[in-house]
Amino acid sequence: MLLKRLTVLAVAIIATLGGAATALAGLGQPSPWQLGLQQSGSPVMDNIIWFHDFLLFIITGIAGFVLVLLIIVIVRFNARANATPSRTTHNTLIEIAWTLIPIMILMFIAVPSFKLLFYQLNVPAADLTVKATGKQWFWTYSYPDNGEFEFDSLMLKDGERKEGQPRLLAVDNDMVVPVNKTVRVITTGADVIHAFAVPSFGIKIDAIPGRINETWFTAEREGVYYGQCSELCGKDHAFMPIAVRVVSEQAFSAWVEEAKKKYARKDEVPPSQVASAQSRPQ
Amino acid sequence: MDAMAKAHGEDQHDHPHGWRRYLYSTNHKDIGTMYLVFALVGGLVGGVLSIGMRLELMHPGLQFFHDSHMFNVFTTAHGLIMIFFMVMPAMIGGFGNWMIPLMIGAPDMAFPRMNNISFWLLPASFTLLIISLFVEGEPGAPGVAAGWTIYAPLSTSGHPGPAVDFAILSLHLAGASSILGAINFITTIFNMRAPGMTMHKMPLFVWSQLVTVFLILLAMPVLAGAITMLLTDRNFGTTFFTPGGGGDPVLFQHLFWFFGHPEVYILIVPGFGMVSQIVATFSKKPVFGYLGMAYAMVAIGGIGFVVWAHHMYTVGMSTAAQAYFVVATMVIAVPTGVKIFSWIATMWGGSLEFKTPMLWAIGFIFLFTVGGVTGVVLANAGVDRSLQDTYYVVAHFHYVLSLGAVFTIFAGWYYWFPKMFGYMYSETIGKWHFWLTFIGVNLVFFPQHFLGLAGMPRRIADYPDAFAGWNLVSSLGSYLSGLGALVFFFGVAHAFMRKQQAADNPWGAGATTLEWTLPSPPPFHQYNELPLIK
Asked: Residue B117 pairs with which residues in a beta bridge?
């Protein structure tokens, strides 16, 4: 009985340590003591995680190799071990090797690197578009395809959060999107440069005044995914998070109907016709 | 040679004394010492700022800072001070001024009086930056809180008060100081080498300084242009960076980083030169592959001018542009790798002595490699998408700066301290300094890789609770590093009080450059007769 319990414990420990990096990583938000990237909620993030693991393997190898060489040198060639220094200052073969091999490693890295880059930047045909405008210090989301409503999304302060809502990440009005649909996000800045990021989707794009930027994601699982503003924008830069709530198609349609009423403008003028760059009065 | 130098050193009527000796100095050694003292002060102020930030970040929530504004004033000041008032003055103004003439067999710099203004511009520059801390920046709050990168529009419409203007003027003076220094160093190195010292017989430290000052000469004016455009946007109605007037915030980023990327090579290349001298000395072997080492630095400097937009992968750049910058950035890893392997090959077969300078140099070789490989990760725009503006970037650049450049500065300090001041430092204190700092800075910055991967953004005074664990470790590491710094200052005081005389060459047969043929300290004027190089 004890042996069985010990075996279960040992397996649990090894499994935890072995899967430590991913097991500890959160989906949609960070976890305490996390070592690696957040869990993926999109195919782009799957690719980013794969590529980062690939790079980590290579760079650990390189740094480890340098460390081993240094240890050998310290042990074999310290003054007590080797009283007479050699005068060697050249070795053509080795000099060619340590130039060509790094070049080959870099070329080896470049292939999946470009594949990932083109995958990210070729925005596919979108099922819907959401516009995220960065303002000091909150986000405004507009849904041009679904009724042209827009609403502000502010961080919930202490006392406003419900049970389970993470501090500094939860907001009053989430950006809601349907699951398994390609969402194009277009961004701009109303005052200074901000940046829209959702780590679990593997997206980050600056929100710059006078410019419209574009990114995309396909959320593969329902849930809430958090990000934070990723360009210094002033005193509350740390306090303007992004929360994307991914729901079923039906739930999304229902939410759209609610939102059209909830966020309707009193004068019924669609937001696209209103002058832009209106900051929320402080 | 020795006797002649000593005899001339007895001249007392040769040079001014008291405060005039320093305020009016035209002596490269005195000016070098002033730069080093200035850098120590800069490092102290910059370091205190960083401890302040780590105190706040130790636990979630805001404990010491009322809001993020003052925290980001600290962030900004920490960056600007460490770069412009610590690393550059120490490496270029300090060690460069001191050692270039001694190493090439020259009596002084080409333009000794211009050397003076190069130095004295810096206290003026520092003063302007300090003033910026006390005038309005963001509405109702003092100081510049835009990061050392001062992006528009945060640094223009986002900072209506005069703080940013003071910071801009501060940078103008610091830039002028560096550009004048660059002119001086280039002329000196090209024209004043002793007879027989061809470019290919020059010590690698001199090569490193030559590359660095060319980078300064070509890059600093671009910063000057960018910040002047910022100044006119802020005060004279121009709209370079304002979309409403036809301008573009991204233009500022291009201009800034066109300077900014060569700047980071300015911050490390002199360190490469120092490490070459130190590794050769304490291995009792000449540097492996001298020409490869010299031209690797030239290559790093040159390629460093065409990679700037890897700091801008998320601004909305085209696919083709991102792809180009990925490739160009990764190319720099090749000459850098050549240097790392050449230092190891220098030690291979040598007879190593692990004096304090060598500890710093070996520590540098490994830790700079770690910082360098995370740079290769960041170079790939696809994964940089997740890492841009996170603590992964902070970890990367602190590895190559605090564990790279700073390690080389301490290496150079211990290596040349006996030569400059005529006293031996205590090996015991030096080693304590090294190990406390080594452990401390690794504790500060290694966990920051985890924080960045997990998604913690930069430049925030408070963070989601999940980031608390590694932030605590990082902060504790910073206190240990602070203790290391105190040990360093104690060691300096101890050496000056103990007054143990240093030999002309305390390092033995491995120290083969010309400064070791002079007394410690050298006379006020050296090489009244130029040495002949075979």
From this structure: none
Q: How far apart are the C-alpha atoms of B444 and B472, rounded to whole Å?
A: 9
User: What would the pLDDT profile of B42-76 be if each residue is shown by its tens digit?
Assistant: 999 999 999 999 999 999 999 999 878 999 999 99
CB within 8 Å of chain A, chain B residues 468-487? 468-470
Confidence of residue B228 (pLDDT cuts 50, 70, 90): very high
**Catalytic residue numbers of B?**
78, 108, 148, 177-178, 261, 263, 265, 276, 310-311, 336, 339, 458
Q: Please count the other Cβ atoms lying within 10 Å of the Cβ belonging to residue B508.
A: 15
**CB-CB contact of A30 with B466 (8 Å):** yes
Q: What is the CA radius of gyration of chain A?
A: 25
Six token digits for residue A215? 């990114």
Contact B351, A81 (CB under 8 A): no
User: DSSP letters of B430-486?
Assistant: HHHHHHHHHHHHHHHHHHHHHHHHHTPBSS-SS--GGGHHHHHHHHHHHHHHHHHHH
pLDDT at B120 over 80: yes
Strands A128-135 and A138-143 come out as: antiparallel
| 3-state SS string for B480-498 | HHHHHHHHHHHHHHHHHHH
Report the gap between the CA of A7 and the closest CA in chain B (Å): 30
Which H or E run contains A180? none
Which residue, among B280, B266, B421, has the nearest Cα to B357 in the 3D structure? B280
Task: Tell if the CB–CB gap between B341 and A38 is shorter than 8 Å.
Answer: no
Residue A159 has what pLDDT? Answer: 94
Burial status of residue B294 (CB atoms within 10 A of its CB: 0-12, 13-18, 19 or more): buried
CA dist A234 and B144 (Å) reads 10
Using CA atoms, how far residue A110 sits from A102, A115, B189, B302, B304, in Å, is 12, 8, 39, 22, 19
C-alpha radius of gyration, chain B, whole number: 23
- CATH for A2-121, options being 1.10.287.90, 3.30.230.10, 1.10.287.110, 3.40.50.970: 1.10.287.90
CA–CA separation, A221 and B518 (whole Å) = 72
Q: Closest chain A residue to B142 measured between Cα atoms? A: A235
Which residue from A35, A89, A166 is facing B289, i.e. has the nearest CB? Answer: A89
Q: What are phi and psi of A243, to 5 degrees?
A: -130, 120
Strands A213-218, A138-143: pairing is: unpaired
CA dist list (Å): B289 to A209, B208, B294, B339, B340: 51, 15, 9, 9, 12
Both tokens of B14, joined, read 């040769």
Vertex B261, ends B259 and B266: CA angle to 5°? 90
Closest residue of chain B to A86, computed from CA coordinates: B349
Could you name the CATH architecture of A128-262? Sandwich (2.60)
Tell me: the pLDDT tens digits for A220-262? 999 999 999 999 999 999 999 999 999 999 999 999 999 999 9
Q: Mutation test of the interface with chain B: which of A27, A45, A69, A73, choosing the one with the most B Cβ atoms within 10 A?
A: A73
B158 touches chain A (CB under 8 A): yes
pTM of the full structure: 0.94
* Minimal C-alpha gap between A234 and chain B (Å): 7
Predicted complex ipTM: 0.95
The domain spans of chain A are: 2-121, 128-262
